[in-house]
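so the lab meeting is tmrw and i was supposed to have these ready like two days ago... anyway. pasting both below. for each one the top line is the aa sequence and the line under it is the structure tokens. i havent really looked at them closely yet so no promises
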Amino acid sequence: MSTSASASQVVITPQQFLAHWQAHRRLTRRVIDAFPADKLFTHSIGGMRTFGEIAKELLGMATPTVAGILTDQWGKYEEAAASTKAEVLTQWDAITAELDAKFLEIPVERFQETKTAFGQWTMPVHDLLLYVIDNEIHHRGQGYVYLRSLGIEPPAFYDRS
């Protein structure tokens, strides 16, 4: 299989991929927003990180990954600096806009290239991006458990509108 791709060879277009990712991000944002402000960085179960700490991880992955894919400049992975629900949501919204602005700049053939992200994860770009999405989904599931433990009904998992 060739490492280059044309539009006729792709299963999903970059526009469709971004729309799928942003749909997951909308749902995760609703999960973050469902937390009482005083519980986002304090409530945990079984010694797991708080959902606020998890959100900082998610914030630290999205745009730095896209920037690295675009530029081949990979710094050290760092979680976002946020300590309140308002800060997390503000950063989430800014990253959403950045993804809309930058993701479609990735050349389609780059999705087949292998990159080492943050000096630690070596894989094809399409797998790297799917990893970022899968990681978000996994952690969103933790958020659902936390919300239920607080007596809060989480957003419907299938509603990514």
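ok protien two:
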Amino acid sequence: MASLILENITKSYGRKTVLDKISHMFPPGLTLLTGPSGAGKSTLLRLIATAEKPGSGRMIWDDTPLPAGRAALRRVLGYAPQAVDLPDDLTAREFALHIGALKGLDRVAADRQFGAITEAIGLHADINNRIASFSGGMRRRLVFAQALLGAPQLLALDEPTAELDGETARRLGALILERARTAAVIMTTHLADELAPHAVAMLRVEAGRVAAA
């Protein structure tokens, strides 16, 4: 199973340095990110998901440095950002099939996987409804479900359990732990204490640095 390595990653916005020379290896299993609001956790996840580029330093996936390995990483990546603009004019199923196609899944496989995931997290009854009708919690579950399509080897999850009731959050937590058996899962969550016993690492992001929590 592949690991993700960060070497001296720095990210700044204007004069503000958000991440300062971050070096860490993320092995298969669950890694939890903690730290105060605004500390750079979401920025770190965006960099891991290749949604942004670092100012300096490099990322290495499966022994291949990026950007050379970016295409290979994106083929095995699942990303659930904290905030995302969803296409309100599509149904949840249409959106999932589009994401599945981008991940190289055929329509039948994507539909089957999406059905199983949404059944597990209590969204299946609504998959043929337009996203415009979805509540905040339903949107959160949809973003989570699309991240799991294709059985990704690397999952970057930014507060996937936010806005969810306790039972639904626990369902997502169970799926995350299942995926962490065969994938590198890096996530922020308000369920950190509950998931910590199952994590391979718990990191604190603060003042631009990352250290063991």
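from a quick look at the 2nd one: The chain has one domain: 4-212. The radius of gyration is 17 Å. will dig more after coffe
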